Amino acid sequence: MGRILCVVNQKGGVGKTTTAVNLSAALAMSGQTVLLLDMDPQCNATSAIGLAPCDGHALVREESIIDGIQTSSIDNLSVIPGSRTFQDVDRLANSDANETQLVRRHLDTLAETHQFVLLDCPPSVGALTQSALNASTEVLIPIQCEYFAMEGLTQLIQVIKKVIVSTDGRLTFGGILLTMYDPHLELTHEVDAEVREFFGDIVFDSVVPRDVALCEAPSHGQTVFQYAPRSRGAFAYTQLCMEVLQHD
């Protein structure tokens, strides 16, 4: 069975979707079979990969989840697009026990045919994100190198711990990723040191720098590897990919 990685942070603008999209691409380019699943009603991961949102989200269908898979322009990378349809978002966000089990069954089915399934979640710790956490095997947390990073991260960790207990250990910590890393700023080094001292080995060695290529690529419907393959952002996500593969 493949690994189901939930990319989550309750704050917006921290590189969550950027990480979900570009880590998916890096893993696929390394030869892994990868599926990117967009659970954010904003559907930014869908558009960043060059696809359009769908009318109905495949996760809430009773029929086979396989029918909702679309191909991307990158070999080995498939996508289940997000949906802006209010009914789908509401059903996912207000899942009862049966709906939660349906989402998990769907994801387990996907993990049988893909080595990695990556979930891009909305910027919140609401029901939609918790539904994704309940169905995942690992959680990856991108955090921006800024003053409030630790405060938000501590709150998020508490939510994740509750899910770990409720799922009998199905969910584990995949890692914490420092994003928008500017080595010229003293604050960056302070946040880096504090996060690593507090969380230790679950913090990735790789960091994602501030890079204009990472900001521009989604507007072209491309990953950073397609848009600027020699950029610092592309190198950073290649390094992260190698770390994720080593944690298998």
UniProtKB/TrEMBL annotation:
The lineage of its organism: Bacteria, Pseudomonadati, Planctomycetota, Planctomycetia, Planctomycetales. PANTHER family: P-LOOP CONTAINING NUCLEOSIDE TRIPHOSPHATE HYDROLASE, PARA FAMILY PROTEIN CT_582. Residues 3-170 form the AAA domain. Transmembrane segments: none annotated. Its EC number is 3.6.-.-. CDD domains: ParAB_family. It holds the Pfam family AAA_31. SUPFAM superfamilies: P-loop containing nucleoside triphosphate hydrolases (SSF52540). The keyword Cell division does not apply. It is an enzyme of class 3 (hydrolase). Keywords: Hydrolase. One of its GO terms (molecular function) is hydrolase activity. This is Soj-like protein.
